[in-house]
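User: Could you write out the 3D structure of this protein bound to magnesium ion? I've included everything you need below.
Assistant: Certainly. Input first, then the structure.
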Amino acid sequence: MPKGVSMPILVMKFGGTSVADLDRIANAAVKVQREVERGYDVIVIVSAMSGRTNELVNWVETTSPFYDAREYDAVVSSGENVTAGLMALRLQEMGVSARSWQGWQVPINTTSAHSAARFESIPRDNLDAKFAEGFKVAVIAGFQGLSQEGRITTLGRGGSDTTAVAFAAAFGAERCDIYTDVDGIYTTDPRVSDKARKLDRIAFEEMLELASLGAKVLQTRSVELAMRYKVPLRVLSSFEETDETSGTLVCDEDKIMESKVVSGVAFSREEAKMTLVTVEDRPGIAGAIFGPLADAGVNVDMIVQNISEHQAKHAVKVTDMTFSCPINQVARARKAMEDARDAGLINFDDLVADEDVAKISVVGIGMRSHAGVAAQMFKALAAENVNIKVIATSEIKISVLVDRKYLELAVQALHDVFELDKA
Ligand code: ASP
Ligand code: MG
């Protein structure tokens, strides 16, 4: 094609394990070259070499425990600069015209929320000009951006996924391929059930639930962005030979033919159940509890309010409030509640934390039009003698808290009852 005629754009993202050393970078570069040969202009997004970001975080924390968040970002964003440059060099060695771009050079404009920045804009001009000159590949350092104050920002751990989707949206890419160390999205974690099956397709909304439940393959924010801008996302292995049919496509639900009621069973081991015993039952109490928890950054998921056993001992009407949160936020939640009590906002007799629970969820867009999924789930757990401690439901998800020792058993039972091993 003559210069200046625009080619279809493909975004390819390589995670940390896919660029862990020079051989793997070379391997990834071959995949990029293949797409160039197919006729694409390619935007490559790279993570830091695996382990590198953790090392950088550790260096920051060791140097300065209460670090300046701007300098944290300056340091931890640097791993991606190395892999972006190396990838561009490797492609050049292979005769592919490529150059690297750090976030500020594009520029990737973000908010100033250091270590949790969000995209504001990604102007196309600079990359478009390069593609128009005949360059085939733009290699972008993932995970980083530029604040309005001119400082380097980062997007939160796992943020390169989100960089990839944002570029795919900004450049109208045909697809966003996420190369990683697994070959797709599974019905459940294969380490927990040997019947886990790789899905050909999964709906954005289902993937969003799975990602926020802790399936670490994609950053939750990247799935949100992909859903909003309808960017088809493909998750595939960088260690295997791959073609257009490899991996799992995360896409709009109307592109999914096979419709199962339940698509997957997700779980989180690191869950805790907290109960505020005997809080006053009055209008505004939930706000008075969950406001301070939110302000303290506690990610509350399930909430149950029930009649307190201790009503008889109290003159006013009281209730027990139970909620779940990640186990590493228990201390923070406790402090927020004690502070709220000290400030006179709430009152409670006790705060009981059960740290031996796990959360298990079944997810599926088919639930919207099928009754009885919850009953089926509860019966399957009962048949295994697994006691359910808390239940929560949404349109496409049913979650339960159970004792952690039953996690594997419960996941396997649910995988069986919803026949997830069968296509
Ligand atoms: N390197 C960053 C991290 O480990 C970003 C990423 O790889 O997505 O979180
Ligand atoms: Mg990742």
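DSSP finds twelve helices and 18 strands in the chain.
User: Perfect, thank you.
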